[in-house]
Each structure stands twice: as C-alpha cells, then as structure tokens.
Specification:
Elements lengths: L9 H7 L5 E5 L2 E4 H16 L9 E5 L4 H12 L3 E4 L6 H10 L4 E4 L4 H11 L2 E3 L23 E7 L7 E6 H15 L6 E4 L6 H14 L2 E4 L5 H9 L5 E4 L1 H13 L2 H12 L3 E4 L6 H11 L4 E6 L3 E5 L13 E2 L4 E5 L13 E6 L6 E2 L3 H6 L1 E2 L2 E11 L2 E7 L4 E4 L2 E4 H8 L5 E11 L3 E10 L7 H8 L11 E4 L13 H6 L3
Parallel strand pairs: 1-10, 3-4, 3-5, 5-6, 9-10, 11-12, 12-13, 25-26
Antiparallel strand pairs: 1-2, 7-8, 8-18, 13-14, 14-15, 16-17, 17-20, 19-20, 20-21, 22-23, 24-25
Helix pairs in contact: 2-3, 4-5, 6-7, 8-10, 9-11
EC number: 6.2.1.3
Pfam families: AMP-binding (PF00501), AMP-binding_C (PF13193)
Family: Belongs to the ATP-dependent AMP-binding enzyme family.
Length: 504
C-alpha cells in the first residue's frame, strides 16, 4: 500500500503548532518548540552535507537529556536517517558493538562526551558531529530537507534477548506514531502536562513513553541527567509536575525517603505527589506491597503497564477505574493481545496461563540484520513476547517469562547470556551461570554462580570492580556464589531454576 507523503513528519508538524511553548527545560534553561525545530533543521542539513536524503543510513547519537538530545533525534529523522541512541553508561566495548552491528555511518556526540567515542570514530572511519553544528547551518526558506514517508525505518534500539549479544529493534515512523497515539489516548496527555525525565533515553520507557508522548502533545519536559532525588523532590514539592513516570526501584527509594524525612519537607513533597493527575510504574514488576505503600502515603494509586522494546506498550491499567495491584491491565487502544499455551492453542479461558502475543501497528518491523530471529519472533503475524500471563476478571497478570535468560533489574531488561560471556573472560572463572534472584527493591538482582579455576579465589568486590570495566554497571552481578559444579540436566544444559535456588 502506498503511504501518503507529507512535507513534515507528524511529530515535526505537531511541534510547529506549539512553536512558542516551552518544550524542554534543563538546568533552568528553557527551550521552545520553535527553537527545537530550528536546531534540528540546522543539524539535519549538516548531516546531509549536500545529499538529498540519508536514505535510512544509521546515525548514532550520544547526547545527555535535554534540548540537544531532542534536536539530535529530530535532525536524524528529518534528514532521512535511522536514529541509534547510545547509552550514556555504555563501556567502550558496548559502544563499539552498537556502532558496528548497526552499520553506523555518523555519530552525533555532545562536546563534553566526545572523548568517549572519538577514538572509535577514527578507527572505524565514522563521521563525527556536535549538536552545536546546527548553529552554523543555513536554515530558512532556502533550506531543503527530504520528504520522509512514515513507513520508513526511524529508530534502532538495542535490547537483550535470548542470544548472547543485544539485537537491534527496528521501528518505523508509523510504528512510533502508533505507540505514542495509543498512550496519548489512554493516559490523557495534553499540552498542559509537565513531566520530569530522568530515565535512560536509549530505552523505550524514556524515549517513547515520556519524551515522545510529551512532545507529541505539546507538553513540557524537565530533563535531569539521572534520578537526582533531592532535585526532583524539590520540584515535586513546588507543584512543578502533572505526571510522573518511574521504575519500581525509584518508588522504593522514594518510600524510604518519605518514611524518614523531616515532617516539613515530607508534607510538601506529599502535597506535590498528591496533586499530580497520573503516576505510572513500569519496566519491571511492581510489588503489591509497594503499590499499597505508595497509595497510603500519597493517595496516588500507581498505574502499572506492560510493554517492551519490540512493541512499545501493549497493556495498561485504566486511567479511570481500578488500578489493580499485581496486574498490568487490559490491551491499550489499537493493540491486539492474546495468550497461547504450550500446545500452540489460543487460551480462551480466564485463569489459564499462556504466552503473551501482540499484534498491531505498534509492533516493530524487524531485528536488524537478523532475519532468522525476526521470523522466529512471530507466529501467524503475532509477536511472541516470551512472557507468560493469565487473565483474571479481564486484567492481565504477568506470571513469569518463557526465557530464563532474561533478567529484569531496576527497570532494565538484561541478557544473562551476555553477562555470562563477559564473566567467562575472567581469569579465575572456569564456568558460570547468571540468573535473576527475586528482590523487592530491584525486581531481580543479577546473581552469578561460578566454578573457579583450580587454586583461584574470587570475591564479589573484586568481581564487580573487574566487571565494571567491561559491562554497564547495572549488568554487574550483585550476588556471587562459588560452587564445585553447576546443576545440569541429562543433556548437559545448566538448570537455571536450580541455580536460583543456590541463592536462597
């Protein structure tokens, strides 16, 4: 089917209708929608460098949260490229993997982060630009940017899967639009909304659920480099926000602060939370105890939802009505969801478990350069999430995952196999198995059971110090157990449930 063309991508066209409004604030500096449009246009022209269209070339960007991040993302899209956000906490090995696997041709990097990728760019022959390059570009009537169809590839986000290395998830502009419009409708976004942004912007929670939804609606985003509790709570106490979105780990930290803070500070913050119209928890399971504690403290029943990189958001508790603890709600607008059992039969009866399958315009196009993995991820046009759920009184409840090699910790989805591959490079480790151990604060903690080389010794502290030079800090094991041998089945495969039991 031929996709109708428009001179501007929908998110850019919508931004032009909010030109004079503040779009992003960061460190007391406000940037309007018009300024973002001008900056992204200038940078897009620099990216094109005389070409008519980037033609879906991948362009990575390493930029802190704020106006520069938005301008870089929009510039890549407006030039016809595929945006590849890089993690600010990634190691050089992880950065190199993303740049090479995605086949990146250029990198936009903030000036104060340039040294992190400059050697890589030089060695790999990649063009490097600064977001500030937009300032020297000629914009205006004479500037020409390509017309980009919404069915073209727009973004590649890397997600851990059941393979040892992350896979690039490709979404189109139409797919992103479907994800955003579904949440706009379900969560009642408007131009009057104001929201803090402190979640990672190389993950869908930050880049779609918060940033893209807010900018689509004409709302205002206040960006933080990370979750700076004191700074965020000061703004909460001042009534700065109408929405708040975080992972369960952050809510646990906030509960701890609220239960121990001086009365005057506590009351002001509680008033700020109570005055918000919506508070959302996601990226990991929210313990029912945390849901109850938060509601008791603030009067706010947290809205829990379910999604993943490949599908955006699929299920959500309702904006109006019961937000059921321990459940992730019902299908979002425009999203089809079904359960399928181990016999590949669609589950029709409530209370019977099955794997969550999702279908709709929100679903990603493909895994980058992995046609076999893409084909295996779908059955009859439905995406197989790997998560097991039951339906109870119309509400979906997640029971677990069909893959034991995915760990959800602190809002991140981690590949146990990727971490194992790293640990096996340690000179003291002969064998290892990495699992997620249930934890009320983190969802799951990364735990490693290891068989040591004869005569070797290894402490958790030394392993963490060694690992942090090779993988992101949130992937580093928090628990370590030395064993004489790993539990295996008759085929020699490690029995991960048995490994979990080693940690009590």
């Amino acid at each position: 089917m031929e996709v109708p063309l428009s001179p501007l991508l929908p998110i850019i066209a919508r931004a032009s209708t909010h030109a004079g409004r503040t779009a992003v604030s960061c460190a007391a500096q406000n940037t309007t929608y018009q300024q973002l449009l001008d900056q992204s246009e200038g940078l897009a022209l620099r990216l094109l460098d005389g070409r008519d269209d980037l033609g879906e070339a991948r362009v990575a960007f390493l930029v802190p949260p704020g106006a520069g991040y938005v301008a870089s993302l929009w510039a890549i899209w407006r030039a016809g490229g595929v945006a590849a956000p890089l993690s600010l906490s990634a190691t050089k090995h992880e950065l190199e993997y993303t740049l090479t696997d995605a086949g990146v041709e250029a990198v936009v990097v903030a000036d104060d982060l340039a040294e992190r990728v400059a050697p890589l760019c030089e060695r790999l022959g990649l063009r490097r630009l600064s977001p500030a390059a937009a300032e020297s570009a000629i914009v205006g009537p004479a500037a020409t940017l390509p017309t980009v169809a919404t069915d073209r590839r727009a973004m590649i986000l890397y997600t851990s899967g059941t393979t040892s290395r992350p896979k690039g998830v490709i979404t189109t502009h139409a797919c992103i639009q479907a994800q955003v419009e579904s949440l706009i409708q379900a969560w009642r976004w408007s131009a009057d909304d104001r929201i803090p942004l402190f979640l990672p912007l190389h993950h869908i929670h930050g880049i779609i659920n918060i940033l893209s939804c807010a900018l689509w609606a004409g709302a205002q985003v206040e960006a933080f480099a990370w979750f700076i509790r004191e700074a965020v709570l000061q703004r909460v106490a001042g009534g700065a926000y109408t929405l708040f979105m975080a992972v369960p780990t952050i809510y646990v930290k906030l509960i701890d602060w609220l239960e121990n803070a001086p009365a005057d500070q506590r009351d002001a913050v509680l008033g700020g939370f109570a005055g918000m119209r919506l508070m959302v928890s996601g990226s990991a399971a929210l313990p029912s105890s945390v849901h109850a504690q938060w509601a008791e403290l603030t009067g706010q029943p947290l809205l829990e939802r379910y999604g993943m990189t490949e599908i955006g958001m699929a299920l959500s508790n309702p904006y109006d009505g019961e937000r059921r603890p321990g459940a992730v709600g019902r299908p979002l607008p425009g999203v089809e969801v079904r359960l399928q059992d181990e016999s590949n039969v669609v589950v029709a009866q409530e209370g019977s478990p099955g794997e969550i399958h999702v279908r709709g315009p929100n679903v990603f196009r493909e895994y980058w350069n992995r046609p076999e993995a893409t084909a295996a991820a779908f059955v009859d046009g439905w995406f197989r999430t790997g998560d097991i759920a039951v339906v109870e009184d119309g509400y979906y409840r997640i029971m677990g995952r069909s893959s034991v090699d995915i760990i959800k910790s602190g809002g991140y989805k981690l590949s146990a196999l990727e971490i194992e591959a790293c640990l096996l490079n340690h000179p003291a480790i002969a064998e290892c198995a990495v699992v997620g151990v249930p934890d009320d604060k983190w969802g799951e903690r990364v735990a490693a059971a290891v068989v040591l080389v004869d005569g070797a010794e290894l402490s958790l502290d030394s392993l963490r110090e060694w690992s942090e030079q090779r993988i992101s800090s949130y992937k580093v094991p928090r628990l370590l157990r030395g064993v004489d041998s790993l539990p295996r089945n008759a085929m020699g495969k490690v029995k991960k449930p048995a490994v979990v039991k080693l940690f009590g």
